[in-house]
Each structure stands twice: as structure tokens, then as C-alpha cells.
Amino acid sequence: MKNIKYSLKSEKQIDIVFSSFFENFFDYTKSRKITERFYFIIDKNVFKFYQNELLDVIQKFPNSSKYILKSKESNKTIDSAQDILQDLIKNSYGRDTFLVAIGGGIVGDLSGFVASIYARGIKFAHVPTTLLAIVDSSIGGKTGINFGETKNLVGTFYHPEFIFTDTYFLNSLAKEEIISGFGELFKYGILNEKSYFNKIKTIFNKILIDNSVEIPQKIIQKAVEMKINIVKNDEKESGMRQILNLGHTFAHAYEIITNHKITHGKAVLLGLFSASRLSEIENLPGINLSSQIAKIIQKVDFGADFPKIEMDEIFTILLRDKKNRGGKIKFVLPINFGELVVGFESEQANVELAIIETFNLVKK
After folding, report:
1. Are residues 344 and 196 in the same domain?
2. What does 195-217 look like in DSSP terms, one character per residue?
3. pTM of the complete model
4. What mean pLDDT comes out for the span 37-43?
5. What is d(CA 181, CA 212) in angstroms, rounded to the nearest whole number?
6. pLDDT exceeds cutoff 80 at 6
7. CATH number of the CATH domain containing 6
8. Which of 58, 82, 155, 333 is the most buried (most CB within 10 A)?
9. Is residue 305 packed enough to be buried (19+ CB in 10 Å), middle (13-18) or exposed (0-12)?
10. Is residue 23 located within the same domain as residue 113?
11. Which domain holds residue 142?
12. Number of structural domains, the chain?
């Protein structure tokens, strides 16, 4: 059992445990002397695949309950949060509740949001079951729901007590979900150094050919440790944590205009190209990152129904991005591995050109 501990400036300490969920989760919670009553929110597909094993674990916790959530962006809403809140009330849960989210980013974001507002805050933990959740969304304390057509507009900063990571769950993921997770991994590759980026690219290329390729634990742990180091120094995204938004301003717009028909990770891949291309269009100093990302994108299937460009709609979405200030779109742009410009304001014509070039990459 590998255990990474990190402390926030608020003095809260969080454990990230790498271990077998089915074999060790109950014993781990006992070792922490958790006395609260447990409530499990479980992704529907995860429950379907591991039903017997999950029920064996849950039955070890006296008087616990479970809630099965269909994990899709259209369910990451205030209505879903209300359903969970009503279920908690119906089952007489109080402040002495320990919520466990078992699933990917949607389950984690929604569960963390519920935990942050129920009874003015209850304890929770995340058991991430997707690559994207393991390396990114489970870490950092961001919770949230989509509101209207804006992604993650409503939410809180609320950290889990611990994150229990079992890469065994990755074995049941479809290749599309693994590819989605690599969107965030490539982001960390750009944030780090070329050698790490190239290692990620090598594994990615193997997975495209062979479903059975395992992702080395060192690749995953390096991404996890990178995010930890950023979050613990900037818990509320007031400074350096903004670099984690690399590619995401574009990505969220691409998710929305495709009605979430492309996964978040695939949208991030497109967003990384758009951001790197915009950096080059703006003649910022650096290397030609966009060509390297383009070669990756061209190996990925984005579907035959990618929409035609509706630039007014895209800019309406970009302007709603919660990271904007003063009505100006703020971009995080890469200029080299480990070097970025934060809060960059670009001419609309240059942004449009980056978007057009991005769409041209995925046209069928």
C-alpha cells in the first residue's frame, strides 16, 4: 500500500492511497478510526461491472446506503444533487455522514459538491475509477455541477479526507475512456518536460494498437505528484494553479457545442492544440508544440458528427468561462515544456484562426 500525504495551507492533510479497493478499503477506514455512517455514491457502469465485489465491501459498513448514478454530463446538475440530498434525508443521514464517491470525474465532482453543502459539510472520500479522475479531477478539492450551458459554473472548493486509488478499475474501461484520460496526461506532459511528454506519447501509441497495454504506475504517480505540488501551494486557484487550466478554456467550449458527444479528455486534447496554436499565431517565443499535438489528435477518432463551426456560439461560451475577468477571455498558453503564459488576452481574429485550424484537424 503506497500512501502519499500532502498538507494544504489551511492545514488540512490529505492521503492519496494506492492499493486494492476490494481487499483493503475497509481495513484502511478502520485504521483511520472513522466513526461516521457511510453513504456510497457509485457510477452505474462501475456498479454493473463489479456489483458482487462492491456489495461485499459495502455490507462491511453497518447501516450504510448506496446511490447509483448514471455518469453523464447531463446528470451533473442541480437536479441530480437534489435527488441525492433527498435520498440522504430519506435515509436519516445527519452531520455524522461519511460519503464515498466511487467513479470518475462526474461522480466525484457531484458527490464532492453534495458533501460540501449537506448539513453544512460532511466528510467524504473519492475512489477514482477512470484514468482522468485518478490523475486530475479527484485531486485539488474542486467540486461542481453544470448550470445552463456552462460547465462547472456552480461549485465549491471542498477537499476529501482521502483518495483511494486502485488502478485495477482501469481494466474494465473501454479504450475510449483510456484515451480520454490521456488528454489530461498530455497536459501534465506539457507542464513538465519533454522526456515525460514523450513517455506518455509512447504509451499512448501502444494503447491505440493494443488494449491490454498497462499504464506504468510511475507515469500515473508523476502526474498525481505534479498536481499535488501545485494544489498545496495554491489551494483556491489564485496564482500558479491557473496553469492547470491549460487547454480547458477551449475544451469546455468544444464539449458544449458537441452536446458532450466527445469526452472531456478528447476535448482537452483539442484544447491543447488550440492553445498551442494560438501561442504560435501570437508569435510568443517558444517551440512548435502544436505540430506534435496535431500528430496525436490525428490518431484519435472524434466521431463523424463533429459540427460545423458556429463562431458566434463558440465565443458566447468562451465569454462565459468562469476564469474570465472584466469581460475578457483569459487564456493559458504554452510556449515550451514547463513554460506557460497565464491570463493572456488575444485578438478575436487570432482565436478564430486557432479554432478553425482545430476543427480542420477533426473534420471527416
Report:
1. yes
2. HHHHHHHHHHHHHHH-TTPPPPH
3. 0.89
4. 98
5. 16
6. no
7. 3.40.50.1970
8. 333
9. exposed
10. yes
11. 2-172
12. 2
